[in-house]
Amino acid sequence: MLAQKAFRLTVVPRVAVSLMGIAVSLTAAGAVANDASPTPQQGDAFAAAVGGPEFVGNGGCVRCHRGNPIFPEADETSRTDFCLLNESSIFAPPIRSDSSKPTGDLPAGDIHRLAYSRLEVEKPDSLGNRIWNYVRARSPGDEEKKLDQARQCLSCHAGWRNEPGHPHERPPFFHTGVTCETCHGSSARWFRSHTLVEWRTQAGSEKEKNFGQTDVRDPVRRAKLCFSCHIGNAEMGRIVTHDMYVGGHPPLPPMEIETFAERMPKHWRTIREKGDFLNRKEFLAKNYSNAGAQIESELPQTRAMLVGSLVSLSESLRLFSGMLSSEKGPDFAAYDCFACHHELTSRSWRQARYSETKARPGQLRPLEWPTALASIGLRYADPPNAAMDSQRMEAALTQIDRAFQTRAFGDAAAVREIVGGPNQAGLADWLEQKARDLASRTIDRTLAEAAYRDLKELNASETLDYYSAVQSAVAMRLISRELATDYPRIVESRNGTAPAFLTRKNDNANDQERGLRDADDISVLLAWRKLRKQSDTRVNERFLAAFRRTATEPSTDRNEPAELLLLDFPTFRKERTEGVAFAPFLEHIRYYSPNDVRKAIAGTPSIQSP
């Protein structure tokens, strides 16, 4: 039976496991097999057994999710029809002697796993220490703290919660950076239970409420989690301050959440990338409001992008309001950097744009890029009321702008009322509710094509700043990529050559039959991914060509970038630790021409069918 398990899992990357790891996991398997009905109380008992109330540590996850050919344990409660169990090997692959140095812009594995090590705490002259030395010299009470004690930094770089009232002790395993439990939640209360097949029959929201497992399948919840660091969250103490910027911290770039997830790279599968797994019907009913036939026409990445557009604006407004209202007063990092940092050319596009619309040249204002996609996402949250919703959002944003016309740093009380509002009726909560409405809808090809056209019209009708133009172009590329290929379907029998999962007709099949079926599902997935990669490459090449600079006259400045926009922020470049990763973006911003970009977006390739 073990041999059969090994055979069927060799189609995905695997690494060796120690005999101790086998013993530990086989022991855990016996406990799991006897735990047919997981409860929070049982989770608490297990938390005490593993040595802590919250965290088990990344090692506990790796035992099964490392891509080992033996695990999960060969018993009747274990399945690999739901996940490939190679997630850790994608997130943090083993370093081999022949591939220890990453090539190109993307190293093997997820950059999050290096979040703490990139601080280089032990090196006094590292960028992390230089930034912290600058910040602590200006922070009363922090003068004696070392970098590995700085909650301001480790809140994002190591998952050390920084909100008031939370224990001051550093979390265990903080040196491992941003890993499994940072995103999925401290696992002591669900470590055993989530290995049971019955775990699939519970709603993600209930798992989070009763066990503490973060519901990352909820696109709103996932977006809020990601944006808590990549935009910031005042309540959680996750704030990049202007002092951090001055000390050398790279500015936080604009973030389209689904493009970012693909680039991590993604170590999970969407529901349409999974086969007919055990308890699939119950899982869909508990976790998807569109669990019927609509799920087969769903475009999950486009939906996540549109949902993320509303959440990014909601979260940026919360951060802005929180920083504006802090006891220390407003921090310059709360404002749009380019309100102050921009070219001084007379009658620049910035001057013309802001004098003609809402903001005045030189006026401080909130971040602008989160509004670019939000206006599109709002159209699909509640279509019958889309026009009224758009008017409400524009009116509220205009009120925020007026709060900065009366005071140089903004009227904090007015902004707080607009964003927070009484009885949770403020702009931020309203946008989040609209995001939840959108998350419950089915975004199919027809709506995705309409969103693509809306993005083109947005660029034709407005003069966007650089970051907003990047957001729009990246969103258009994502829609194009998802429309250019089809997802595998679940069928009774295969007809034609398109990859398709077969219906799982006998869930009580013996281990050998299940193993052969799981191997077949994985083969279908890999075949589909190959086709998807080829399609993505073609779309990317067309978009790169569309945004190549095509001036009729030779440039007078030889340093002018060839690309009108950088569609992939250099998040993964090694130079980030040296403080220069932002340089390419600054060069592109310097030469940014809204008119050229508008023409490029108007000429982007039309949507192609798979």
Mean pLDDT: 80
Strand order across the largest sheet: 1-2
Q: Provide the structure class.
A: mainly alpha
The tally of strands reads 2
Bulk shape? globular
Could you list some keywords that capture this structure?
610 residues, mainly alpha, two-stranded parallel ribbon, 1% strand
Question: How does this structure look, described?
Answer:
- With 610 residues, this protein is mostly helical.
- The radius of gyration is 25 Å and the shape is globular.
- Strands 1-2 form a two-stranded parallel ribbon.
- Helix 1 (2-8) packs parallel to helix 22 and helix 14 packs across helix 16.
- It has helices spanning 2-8, 19-33, 40-50, 58-65, 87-91, 127-136, 151-157, 180-184, 204-211, 219-230, 242-247, 257-263, 280-287, 300-324, 349-356, 370-381, 386-406, 412-419, 427-439, 445-461, 466-483, 511-546, 583-590, 594-602; strands spanning 489-491, 500-502.
Break the fold down into its secondary structure elements and pairings.
Elements: H1 2-8, H2 19-33, H3 40-50, H4 58-65, H5 87-91, H6 127-136, H7 151-157, H8 180-184, H9 204-211, H10 219-230, H11 242-247, H12 257-263, H13 280-287, H14 300-324, H15 349-356, H16 370-381, H17 386-406, H18 412-419, H19 427-439, H20 445-461, H21 466-483, E1 489-491, E2 500-502, H22 511-546, H23 583-590, H24 594-602
